[in-house]
Automatic annotation (TrEMBL):
Short name of one Pfam family: Rick_17kDa_Anti
Organism: Pseudoduganella plicata
Name listed for the protein in its UniProt record: Glycine zipper 2TM domain-containing protein
Domain annotation Glycine zipper 2TM: ranges: 57-96
Lineage summary: Bacteria, Pseudomonadati, Pseudomonadota, Betaproteobacteria, Burkholderiales
Keyword annotations from UniProtKB, A to Z: Membrane, Signal
Localisation: Membrane
The keyword Isomerase appears for this protein: no
Length: 144
């Protein structure tokens, strides 16, 4: 082995020793794993949405629309107006009942540790606030 080769080998060994010693001396020299299901709540918004109209709204609306339609025209025209009134009344009755049965909805936005975001809706107060740590579990989020 010539002198230049010995020098290179010594420098390489020294560099590796310093690198390994530095890595072991640094307790923070660990790979940081990102939890893809962990994050923080960025906003909580409460709103009211129309509920669902049911059979009551359809029946009452249909009857009222049919009675009003029956007052129009005569013969075949009266029959068509009655049917059209019943259908229109049923549709309107369902939507009116839905407006009368408003529901509160909590919309919670989350920023995950991996940079992605998600939105979750709750029918009951999830008792979450801005900044709370959460994680995704079974299609929803839980504190922790």
């Amino acid at each position: 082995m010539n002198t230049l080769t010995k020098l290179r080998a010594t420098l390489l060994a020294t560099a590796l020793t310093v690198t390994m010693a530095g890595a072991q001396a640094d307790p923070h020299h660990k790979k940081h794993r990102v939890c893809n299901d962990c994050g923080r709540v960025t906003s909580v918004h409460v709103s009211e949405q129309n509920g669902k109209g049911g059979a009551t709204g359809v029946i009452v609306g249909g009857l009222a629309g049919g009675l009003l339609g029956n007052q129009v025209g005569s013969g075949t025209g009266r029959s068509l107006a009655t049917v059209a009134g019943a259908v229109g009344g049923a549709y309107a009755g369902k939507h009116i009942e839905g407006r009368m049965n408003k529901e509160r909805v909590w919309t919670v936005k989350v920023r995950y540790d991996n940079g992605k975001s998600g939105t979750f809706n709750f029918r009951n107060d999830p008792r979450l606030h801005n900044g709370d740590r959460v994680h995704r579990a079974n299609g929803t989020i839980v504190r922790g």
